[in-house]
Amino acid sequence: MEENEEVNENLTNDTENPQEALTKVTGMYKDWFLDYASYVILERAVPAIEDGFKPVQRRIMHSLKELDDGRYNKVANVVGHTMQYHPHGDASIADAMVQIGQKELLIDTQGNWGNILTGDRAAASRYIEARLSKFALEVIFSPKITEWQQSYDGRKKEPVNLPVKFPLLLAQGAEGIAVGLSTKILPHNFIELIDASVKHLKGQKFKLYPDFPTSGIIDISGYNDGLRGGKIRVRAKIAQLDKSTLVINEIPYGTNTSSLIDSILKANEKGKIKVKKIEDNTAADVEILVHLPSGISPDKTIDALYAFTACESSISPLGCIIEDNKPLFIGVTEMLERSTDYTVELLKAELEIQLGELEEQWHFSSLERIFIENRIYRDIEEEETWAGVITAIDKGLMPYTKHLKRAVTEADILRLTEIRIKRISKFDLDKAQQLLDSLEERIAEVKHHLEHLIEFAIDYFKNLKSTYGKGRERKSEIRIFDDIEATKVAIRNTKLYVNREEGFVGTSLKKDEYVTDCSDIDDIIVFTQDGNMMVSKVDSKIFVGKNIIHVAVFKKKDKRTIYNLIYKDGKGGASYIKRFNVTSITRDKLYPLTNGKPNSDVLYFSANPNGEAEIVTVHLRQVGSVKKLKWDIDFSDVLIKGRASKGNVVSKYAVKRIDLKEKGVSTLKPRKIWFDEIVGRLNLDGRGELLGEFKGDNLLLVVTQKGVVKTIKPDVSTHFDDDMIVLEKWNPKKPISAIYFDGVKERYYIKRFLIEHENKEELFISEHPKSVLELVSTDWRPVVELEFVKAKGKDVKPNQEIDIEDFIAIKGIKALGNQLTTDRLKSTNVLESLPYEEEEELAPEEMEVNEEEDLSSSSDGNKSDDEADSDSEQTTLF
Question: Of 260, 328, 756, 763, which has the fewest beta carbons less than 10 angstroms from its beta carbon?
Answer without folding.
Answer: 756
